Amino acid sequence: MSAPPLPLHETKRDSLSNLTSAGISPILYEVNLSVPKENARDYLSYLGTFCRNAVETVEGFTHCNVFTQPKPTGLHWLSEEGDAKVYVVVQYHIASEHHMNLYLDNYQDALSKQDQNKWGFLVISRRILRLQVAI
Asked: What is the reported pTM?
């Protein structure tokens, strides 16, 4: 006979340090972009190289995923773009809050300007997601 499940407040939860050693990043840095359809193929190719370089050179960047998504719904100001854009989500996996702050202080502005100067695309948004629970 198995024991009944523990109430939620008594459930054992792995520490974030155990999770990160298992390959789960405690921080995701997400960048959302709107790319003209006619430039999407070239930009995505460039972005793969750009992200690989970031993971290899920026301390604490452990992994990166690049996604495309359908046109975001519920954002009225995007309705003017029609179907002229491809929406890209880039998620960088960051090893720690310390590494996130290093990036923001030392790299983010220069890399953003480099990307903007090369392509002229606007970043729709950036956000930092901090892991609270992993199951």
From this structure: 0.75
